[in-house]
Amino acid sequence: MARELTLICPGPESPRLSALLSAVRKAHPFQRVSWMTDDLRDRRLLIAAAIPPSGVNLELYQLLAFLRTHPGCLAGSASGVVIDGTGDLYTKAAGRDLVLSASRAGCVFPGRPLVEATGTLRNFTVQARNAGCGLEEAYQLAVADLMDRVSTFSPPLRRRPQLLVLHASSRATSNTLALWGAVRTHLEDRCDITEVGLRNGTMEDCAGCPYTTCLHFGEQGDCFYGGVMVQEVYPAVREADAVVLLCPNYNDALSANLSACINRLTALYRTTSFADKAVFAIVVSGYSGGDIVARQVVSALNMNKGFWLPADFCMLETANDKGEAMALPGIGARANQFAINILRQLSV
Q1: Is the pLDDT of residue 285 over 80?
Q2: Which of 65, 235, 295, 316, by CA, is between 20 and 30 Å from 99?
C-alpha cells in the first residue's frame, strides 16, 4: 500500500530541480517539511538536493551533520534520494554520503535509491533511448519510478531468514572473521547461514564481456569464467534473504576478491532481481577509513545491484593486530546488538 511522501530539500533548489518536482507532484503528491524542525521518523522520504559545480551544498552538509549526530532520527522511515547537479561530477558522491549517513540514523532504502542528474543529463542517454524519449523526460520518469518504489516499499520478513556470508580472509589472523564469529553465535538459532570463502585462488575478476555475452551466460545461471561464483555464490545468492559482507579495509577499499565477486554478480543480475535481498557488512580498519569502505558497499550493492539497504546496515570497528578486535571495550555488546538489528529487520 502506497504511503504519502515527505519531501526534504536541503539548500536552494536549482530551476531544473524545481521544475522536476512540480512536474512529478501531479501524479505523486508529497508534503514538504524541514529537517531542522520536523519529526522525520516513520515516514516515506524523498531527499532532493541541488549541488553546484563545486559539489558543495552547505545545507546538505548541515543535514549530514545532523544525521550523524542524532542516532535514530529516521527510525522507521524509508527514503529515496535525488541529486541534481550543475556539473558532471560529485552527484553520486553526494548521494552515497547521504545514504550512508541516513542508514546509520535508522532509515532503510529500497534498491537503486539514487536518481542523479549530471549537468548535461548525459547519464540518462541509455534510459532515454530505451524509453524512446528525451533526456529531461527520462530524468522525470526515473524520479517518478523512485517515488513509487519508496512510497510502497516494505522490507520482506521471513520466519527463518537465509543469510549468505561472503569473505576472503584467513581464519587464523582475521579480526573481521573473529567479529563475525561473535555475531553469528546470536543468529544461529534463528537463521540458516551459508558461508563462502573466496580465497581459493580461482576468483577471476569480471572482464567486462559484451552485454549480449553476459546476458547469454546469465540466462543459463552461468558466467564465462565459471568457478566458485557459478558453483557456490550464484546458487546461494538466489536463495538468500540477505548477504553479509565481511570487509577488512585494504588500502581504503574492499579486498580484491570481494570486489571481483561483486563485479561478477552482474551476470546473475541480468536475469535475477535482488530487490528482496538485504545487504549487511562488517568493516574492520587497521587505523581508520571504515566509512570509505561502507560507502563502497552502498554504491556497489544497494545503488548498483539493487539490494535493499537496512537501517544501520554496517558494523564499523578499528583493530589491527591479530585478536585485537575481540579485546575492544564493549565489543561483545556491540556484536550482540548488530545481530539483534539483523534479526529485527529480516525476521517475523
Answers
A1: yes
A2: 235
